[in-house]
Predict the 3D structure of the following.
Amino acid sequence: MSKILYIGFKGQNNSSAALVKSLPGQSVLLTNSFPGLKKDIEGLPAEYDGVCLFGADKSLTDSFRIELCAERDGVRLTTALEPADISKRLAEAGIKSMISDTPTHYLCNEAYWYLLEKYRGRAVLIHIPTMRNFNAIMGESNHE
């Protein structure tokens, strides 16, 4: 894949926003509302080979979680990307991760579903810890 889009959610203290702003390449921050994020995603160009969506999850403390699928109105969409490869690359960077096949709820799931639909499965959702725990993980991975 050559052209990747990194997406997070708006918010000054949102770890997903901080992460995507620090990554090289194209990044977008989504509105933190259901109608807003749908409009944001509809406005994205279709030219990307892949999309990596990051969302914050306060239940995560020392690892990332790669989501295989999203569900909306009883319809489940699954990523066409390789979560095992992503997990391996995270491990190489010193970041623990797990892979989940249980759709989440709320904004992350909604955004993921629309991205999977728009990019025909060429999207992945990675949940990361909130700022405090995220900073601790990134500090540890940078010192190993």
Summary: The CA atoms of residues 70 and 104 lie 7 Å apart. The chain has a mean pLDDT of 91. Residues 4-143 form a domain with the Aminopeptidase fold (CATH 3.40.630.20). DSSP finds five helices and eight strands in the chain.
